[in-house]
């Protein structure tokens, strides 16, 4: 406990009890759930989650934190720690290994790789029941943004095509040790059912979204040059002079299917 937090691992330990309780009650774990925590740190969320779920798998990159976590968890429940970079964890394989139909993933994420972690989880969405993450509030705003908003972009479209995104509440810097420079927020992500998923090639969708938002201020006919021509964009009922930020996630799927 109370190790010096490491900046290089994005360590900001949550210490305010009321926020820990709010996160745990938002997750509402049940005995028998297969809960996986990303970045348990000193166990602020791990121990209350373990107390209810009885079994928990935690993925932690910092070796120094592992003995403390094991010692604190021993009287509470069965904590299995995977010492790894979370980006290298195959969640679909982990679900099979744990004998779970789907995982419930939670974590106060290391902010320096929060977007890569989100994209990584989305790749394994079929193996995930839900996700509850603490992130920079600015990132949560982008994830949940709607077309027309200044912060609507690649993250909003890619996440909303895979999950229902629900921002839950804001957490101030003072709730952490050391306090981060920005406000944080907790968000719930629930992967869409197979029949709600976009009908299209994920790689093509990714390519179109990336190209369209690479230069936000340019029109689609400009940014999608080489991918979809102007006449085709128009034939889909989309204005080629529009900017990416005005298109719905479903519009991007239409465009991708035309490439
Ligand atoms: N859950 C704890 C809490 O709320 O107090 C710690 C949260 S802290 C913001 C992020 C945690 O993620 C740290 O424990 C850090 O060591 C861990 N971490 C950083 N990079 C990681 C990575 N690539 N894979 C797994 N864990 C990582």
From TrEMBL:
GO cellular component assignments: cytosol
EC numbers, comma separated: 2.1.1.182
Keywords per UniProt: Cytoplasm, Methyltransferase, RNA-binding, rRNA processing, S-adenosyl-L-methionine, Transferase
SMART domains: rADc (SM00650)
Single annotated GO MF: 16S rRNA (adenine(1518)-N(6)/adenine(1519)-N(6))-dimethyltransferase activity
Catalytic activity of the protein: adenosine(1518)/adenosine(1519) in 16S rRNA + 4 S-adenosyl-L-methionine = N(6)-dimethyladenosine(1518)/N(6)-dimethyladenosine(1519) in 16S rRNA + 4 S-adenosyl-L-homocysteine + 4 H(+)
Subcellular location: Cytoplasm
HAMAP family: 16SrRNA_methyltr_A
Function per UniProt: Specifically dimethylates two adjacent adenosines (A1518 and A1519) in the loop of a conserved hairpin near the 3'-end of 16S rRNA in the 30S particle. May play a critical role in biogenesis of 30S subunits.
Family of the protein in this entry: Belongs to the class I-like SAM-binding methyltransferase superfamily. rRNA adenine N(6)-methyltransferase family. RsmA subfamily.
The name this protein goes by in its record: Ribosomal RNA small subunit methyltransferase A
């Amino acid at each position: 406990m109370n190790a010096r937090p490491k900046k290089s691992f994005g360590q900001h330990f949550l210490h305010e009890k009321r926020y820990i309780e709010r996160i745990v009650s938002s997750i509402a774990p049940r005995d028998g759930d297969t809960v996986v925590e990303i970045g348990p740190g000193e166990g602020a969320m791990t121990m209350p989650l373990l107390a209810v779920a009885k079994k928990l798998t935690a993925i932690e990159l910092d070796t120094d934190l592992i003995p403390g976590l094991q010692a604190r968890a021993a009287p509470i429940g069965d904590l299995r720690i995977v010492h790894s970079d979370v980006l290298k964890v195959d969640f679909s394989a982990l679900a099979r290994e744990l004998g779970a139909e789907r995982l419930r993933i939670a974590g106060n994420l290391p902010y320096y790789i929060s977007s890569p972690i989100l994209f990584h989880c989305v790749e394994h969405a079929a193996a995930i029941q839900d996700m509850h993450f603490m992130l920079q509030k600015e990132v949560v705003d982008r994830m949940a943004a709607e077309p027309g908003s200044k912060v609507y972009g690649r993250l909003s479209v890619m996440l909303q095509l895979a999950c229902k995104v629900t921002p839950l509440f804001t957490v101030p810097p003072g709730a952490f040790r050391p306090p981060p420079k920005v406000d944080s927020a907790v968000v719930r992500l629930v992967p869409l059912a197979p029949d709600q998923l976009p009908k299209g090639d994920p790689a093509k969708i990714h390519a179109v979204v990336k190209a369209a938002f690479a230069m936000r201020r340019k029109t689609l006919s400009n940014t999608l040059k080489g991918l979809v021509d102007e006449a085709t964009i128009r034939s889909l009922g989309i204005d080629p002079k529009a900017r990416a930020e005005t298109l719905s996630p479903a519009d991007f799927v239409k465009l991708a299917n035309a490439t």
